[in-house]
């Protein structure tokens, strides 16, 4: 069960497993690319088998706009970032604020153990795809994203109509958009209306064109291809992509 705590308009969560501990706090929402709001989450990561003080901490984690900021999906996405080391293909700037203890930890067996926990969660998520309704209700928890048309206003219904007209004509629909479990969704925080599928891919109107909305797996930057020059190989924006450097 997700642990949410509402105190003085601040939302917090603590995740613990196998001696690992992650403290998260939703601190604000900021304007992202193309005007869509994105959450900012502060975090402190502990390995209590190593030391009692935090190993890694920051205030710059931006979960996917399709996920509740402190949901299980967001937690494990962040844990996945924290398991990165130099062999993961991230830039050296990724570790610029790491302490000597943190740099040692990312090369340790405990880092491998956390990687296995993240992998197991992702595998279970994929294996549970048959339970789509439960999964989608988690994404849309806390009224951040909804597919309930009773919550759409006239503006949002018109936007949904434009989306469907573009989708049904099959013009410029990206080949990589997975054609299963598609719903029209409305983000109540940003005001954006978009198409989403069971793989959490997003299609939005960019002017008169239906385009993919991307989210960088490394830094959380999001936007259309023209905004972040998204790489389909590593699922990262141009600033984080290491594919070109490796070549």
What does this entry show, briefly?
With 247 residues, the protein is an alpha+beta fold. Helices cover 27% and strands 26% of the residues.
What's the count of strands?
Answer: 11
Question: Strand fraction band?
Answer: 25-35%
Order of helices and strands: EEEEEHHHHEHEEEEEHH
**Percent range for helical residues?**
25-40%
Mean of residue pLDDT values: 80
Give the radius of gyration: 19 Å
Mass-distribution shape: elongated
Distance between the termini: 44 Å
Structural domain count = 2
Counting helices, strands and paired strands, the structural category is: alpha+beta
Descriptive account of the structure:
With 247 residues, the protein is of the alpha+beta class. It folds into two domains: 5-127, no CATH class; 142-246, no CATH class. The chain is 27% helix and 26% strand. It is built from seven helices and eleven strands. The strands form two sheets. It has a six-stranded antiparallel sheet with strand order 6-7-8-9-10-11. It has a five-stranded antiparallel sheet with strand order 1-2-3-4-5, with helices on one face. A hairpin with a 5-residue loop joins strand 3 (20-31) and strand 4 (37-47). Helix 1 (72-82) packs antiparallel against helix 3 (109-127). The N and C termini lie far apart (44 Å). The relative contact order is 0.12. The model is unreliable at 1-10 (pLDDT under 50).
């Amino acid at each position: 069960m997700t642990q949410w705590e509402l105190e003085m308009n601040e939302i917090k969560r603590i995740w613990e497993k196998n001696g690992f501990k992650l403290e998260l706090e939703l601190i604000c929402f900021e304007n992202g690319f193309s005007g869509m709001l994105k959450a900012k989450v502060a975090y402190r990561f502990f390995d209590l088998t190593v030391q009692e003080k935090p190993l890694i901490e920051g205030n710059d984690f931006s979960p996917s706009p399709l996920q509740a900021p402190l949901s299980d999906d967001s937690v494990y996405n962040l844990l996945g970032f924290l398991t990165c080391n130099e062999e993961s293909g991230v830039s050296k700037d990724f570790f610029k604020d790491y302490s000597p203890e943190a740099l040692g930890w990312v090369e340790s067996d405990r880092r491998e153990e956390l990687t296995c926990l993240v992998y197991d969660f992702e595998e279970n998520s994929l294996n549970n795809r048959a339970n789509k309704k439960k999964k989608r209700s988690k994404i849309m928890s806390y009224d951040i994203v909804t597919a309930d048309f009773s919550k759409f206003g006239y503006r949002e219904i018109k936007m949904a109509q434009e989306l469907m007209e573009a989708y049904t004509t099959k013009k410029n629909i990206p080949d990589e958009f997975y054609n299963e479990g598609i719903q029209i969704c409305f983000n109540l925080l940003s005001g954006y209306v978009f198409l989403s599928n069971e793989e959490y891919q997003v299609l939005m109107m960019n002017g008169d064109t239906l385009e993919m909305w991307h989210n960088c797996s490394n830094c959380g930057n999001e936007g259309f291809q023209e905004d972040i020059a998204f790489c389909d190989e590593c699922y990262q924006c141009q600033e984080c992509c290491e594919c070109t450097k490796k070549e």
